[in-house]
Amino acid sequence: MVFFVCEDCNETLKRLKVAQHLCRCSCSAITCVDCGATFHDDSYLQHATCMSEAERYEGNLYKAPKKKTAQDAWAELVQAACADRRDAPPAAAKLLPRLQGFENIPRNQKKFCNWVKNSLNLRGGDAAAVDALWAYLA
Predict the structure, then answer these.
(1) Beta bridge partners of residue 38, listed in sequence order
(2) How do residues 25-64 score in pLDDT, each as one tens digit?
């Protein structure tokens, strides 16, 4: 999870809350807490992952894991599908842009469907759209 600090009011923000804060605060820049990189405008959106605590404090002694976890691979697959949604079914294509900022998307179908309904505030007859989204991603 990436956290940012507002340069004007020094409020600490999660990545998903930065857009709301920018509307309210009109700050000129935000800075990543972990790596210290400063971002202007919407450039923070590309900063989805940052260095880990071990990487930060161990320096040259740090050894990165040899392969990614299943959750990281799934998150990358979902983000790639959000970026390239040309061949997605129409019902799924409407929901894909709303998934873009999330990193904690479940890999299990039942949990995924419940998570999408709750996180994207889908109510009523959107079960077919959620099923189409799962079929497209899986």
Answers:
(1) 31
(2) 888 899 998 888 899 888 888 887 777 767 777 777 777 7
Supply 114's token pair: 């419940």
Q: How far, in Å, CA of 30 to CA of 26, rounded?
A: 11
Instruction: From residue 9, give the alpha-carbon distance in Å to each of 14, 15, 30, 42, 120.
Output: 15, 16, 10, 18, 29
CA distance 29 to 43: 10
Distance CA 96, CA 78 (A): 9
Cα–Cα distance between 59 and 128 in angstroms, integer?
49
CB 137 within 8 A of CB 106: no
β partners of residue 4: 13, 32
**C-beta of residue 30 within 8 angstroms of C-beta of residue 38:** yes
